[in-house]
Specification:
Largest sheet: 5 strands, antiparallel
CATH class of one domain: Alpha Beta
Oligomer: single chain
Structural class: alpha+beta
Number of helices: 7
CATH architecture of one domain: 2-Layer Sandwich
CATH topology of one domain: Ribosomal Protein S5, domain 2
Number of strands: 11
Distance between the termini: 45 Å
């Protein structure tokens, strides 16, 4: 059976929580028809798979076709910091009370993208910190989408892909997010977590308008991702 080495180099610029995951990755042996076709070179790019609508079941397919893929953590957890305040953590801990005591669960949220129109978001839970991160990385790669970009601002009209082509809306829980096209030079006007998502998507100028409970960070990021996906559901623009 054909195999491919898709293990990325350990980069020091990556979040320290993800460096250990690089060391644990092994040589990829495709287990699906799509994976074997990718190794053979049937698909030249990830766009061809996404346009065809084929379901991706192996995260290594994305690693193989997008070698410059970057990963980042959305810090959804928190713990009391020194001198007061909250120190953000990579995983969020929740507990359930049983007769035998408390059972803890850790949840992580990971985003992946190449900064040029490929974006993925994944959230997973586990009893172990590193296992939760590893599962979230896999889910984010299985959930990649093509980001539709353009210049939809009447103030610009440069016809380049620096912003979004038109207004788009997304929802998750009580949070509703609206993406508004912005002219060149405005930058990404959004919160830090959503800004990470938009930067990895390759969007350079955009306004983000948010409604609802913005303190729910997971819902805020998921609503932003939903708004980005909805750009592909509208014809024209």
């Amino acid at each position: 059976m054909d195999a491919a080495d898709v293990r990325p180099e350990i980069r020091k610029d990556r979040p320290k929580e993800l460096r250990q995951l690089d060391e644990d990755r092994k040589e990829w042996i495709p287990r699906t028809i799509l994976g074997r076709d990718v190794v053979k070179g049937t698909f030249a790019s990830l766009d061809a798979i996404l346009q065809k609508g084929t379901v991706i079941l192996e995260p290594e397919i994305v690693d193989h076709l997008v070698p410059d893929l970057k990963e980042d953590i959305i810090y959804i957890g928190g713990s009391p910091g020194k001198g007061g305040g909250t120190r953000r953590t990579a995983t969020k801990r929740t507990a359930r009370v049983h007769k035998s005591g408390r059972r803890y669960k850790l949840t992580a949220m990971i985003i992946v993208g190449n900064g040029n129109g490929i974006l993925g978001l994944g959230m997973a839970s586990s009893k172990d910190h590193h296992a939760a991160l590893a599962k979230a990385v896999i889910k984010s790669k299985l959930n990649v989408v093509r980001v539709r970009r353009g210049c939809g601002s009447w103030e610009c009209g440069c016809k380049t892909e620096h912003s979004v082509p038109f207004e788009s809306e997304g929802k998750a829980g009580s949070v509703r997010v609206r993406l508004l096209p912005a002219p060149k030079g405005v930058g990404i006007v959004a919160d830090k977590s959503s800004k990470k998502l938009l930067q990895l998507a390759g969007i350079k100028d955009v306004w983000l308008k948010v409604f609802g409970n913005t303190g729910a960070r997971t819902n805020l990021v998921m609503a932003t991702f939903d708004a980005i996906k909805n750009l592909n559901r509208r014809k024209g623009g």
